[in-house]
Each structure stands twice: as structure tokens, then as C-alpha cells.
What does this fold into?
Amino acid sequence: MIWNEKTKGFAIGVGVAILIPIAYEVVATLARPAAKKVIKEGLKLAEKGMEKVAEAGESFEDLVAEARAEVDEEMMAGAVSIEPEEEVSEKAKAEPAPKQKSTKKKSATSKAKTNA
It folds into this structure.
């Protein structure tokens, strides 16, 4: 048999064709546990991430509740302004009572008398 370039290439091709399935099985057998470990670590990391996001959400909700309570408190304080009695009585003495407009409707005959 003559070993020239063509026969060497053919022999190498046949050898590779035989070894690829064997090498694939070896690599797959070794890579499977490594791939499983990577997936498990990814799941653990995702779980921790979800916990951190939940904690951040709770903190934000607490902050919003505190702000809402302060706003409600400020609104109640502004709506019910309580002045001491002395100041109220002094204001009442200093300012004359506002005149109230008559809410009675004039009858047609009284309007006619006024216009005449």
C-alpha cells in the first residue's frame, strides 16, 4: 500500500469519523454534571435576586405609607386650624360681623312698587 497524501487524508478522515462519536459521549458524560451545576447555581442566584427585589418592594411600600400618613396628618392639621380663645375673641371685637344678604325673594308686586 502506498502512503501518499490522499491515503493519509483518507485514513485520518476515517479515524476522526470513528472517534467523534466516542469523544462526544465522553465529553457529554463529563459536561452533563458541569452543566447541571451551572443551572443549579443560576436557579439559586435567581431565587436570591427575587428575594432582594421583594425586600426592595416592601421597603418602598413602607416609605410610601409613611409619606401618605404625613400628608394626611398635614392635611388634617391645615383643615382644622385651632386658635386660642383669646385671639378669637379679640378678632371678633376688632372686626364687625359681615352683613348677611337677604335670601327672601321679592314678590312681583313689591318689585313693581319699587320700580314705579
